[in-house]
Amino acid sequence: MHKLTKENLPRHLAVIMDGNGRWAKQRMLRRIVGHQKGVETVRLIVEECSRLGISYLTLFAFSAENWLRPKTEVKALMALLKKYIRSEIARMMHNNIRFNVIGDRGELPVDINRVIDDAIAQTAGNSGMLLTLALSYGARQEIVHAARQIAIDAASGKIAIDDINEGLFSDYLYTTRIPEPDFLIRTSGEMRISNFLLWQLAYTELYFTDVNWPDFDKNELAKAFRDYQSRERRFGKTSDQVQVGGTAVGDITRHR
Ligand code: FPP
Is Metal-binding given among the entry's keywords (predicted)? Predict the structure, then answer.
């Protein structure tokens, strides 16, 4: 296994945090206990990514489909989110982390939106890692939202049809100004993307681990990063081109 080097870490790490429920079930605990333990992992991984110098960390915390879960679980997850965001502001300030949310915020309860606005405003001046929580997020919904917005702007003459290209489309997504993820980790053994960042993951390296999110820790993160560092990112080019040219870093749209 490669040794972890600080130079070639992903600039943008995205994570599908899965397996809280199974972690709890295996221990004959209620699902919410798994989510509570999952929050502790969030704290740990956010801190470690910031320490390692990761520039962008995007966590899938609540999907558009998660609203269909039993009401009690949705309520408990919302309460956890509110508590987490509120309690993390001080730590984000200490670690120079900027807070951000993507997703359909119109679906979120008013009190959560208030806490989110507060965290975004308080951390807006920080210059370190951008921590993005995907909340009430679905990638298809995001793409449709972008398409609709582009149609509105084209109809009103704000943009011309000829302006519509991949770069412009990206600017209409929730992730505008955030580079595409270099690396995606999904925990708990499921090998799916589950409607997460479908556009943005086009050239992302994918990593799946059997470890459930509550058991994911710094060592597991280091293991995942070592795996990432052993990969060659070609962005559609040949291996020879990448090794000679050495330009296969970052955002694919910039190579067009
Ligand atoms: C998957 O576990 C996880 C979620 C649905 C949400 C992730 C939420 C947290 C880690 C806690 C709150 C987050 C923050 C940022 C404070 P699952 O319930 O789908 O697990 P299962 O597939 O084993 O049932």
Answer: yes
When divided into structural domains, the chain yields a total of: 1
Q: Which range of residues forms the domain containing residue 196? A: 6-253
Known binding-site residue numbers for Mg(2+): 18, 205
Which residue from 16, 22, 32, 35 has its CB within 8 A of the most atoms of ligand 1, so it is best to mutate?
35
Supply the DSSP string of the chain, one letter for each residue: -PPP-STT--SEEEEE---HHHHHHHTT--HHHHHHHHHHHHHHHHHHHHHHT-SEEEEEEEEGGGGGS-HHHHHHHHHHHHHHHHHHHHHHHHTTPEEEEES-GGGS-HHHHHHHHHHHHHHTT--S-EEEEEEEE-HHHHHHHHHHHHHHHHHTTSS-GGG-SHHHHHHTSTTTTSPPPSEEEE-TT----TTSSTTTTTT-EEEE-SS-GGG--HHHHHHHHHHHHT----TTS-HHHHHHH----S-GGGG-
Would you say the CB of residue 10 lies under 6 angstroms from ligand 1?
no
Kindly state whether residue 33 falls inside one of the protein's structural domains: yes
- In order along the chain (256 residues), what is the average pLDDT of each group of 10 residues? 82 98 98 97 98 98 96 96 97 98 97 98 98 98 98 98 97 97 98 98 98 98 96 82 59 42
CATH number at residue 35: 3.40.1180.10
Task: Establish if 108 belongs to a structural domain.
Answer: yes
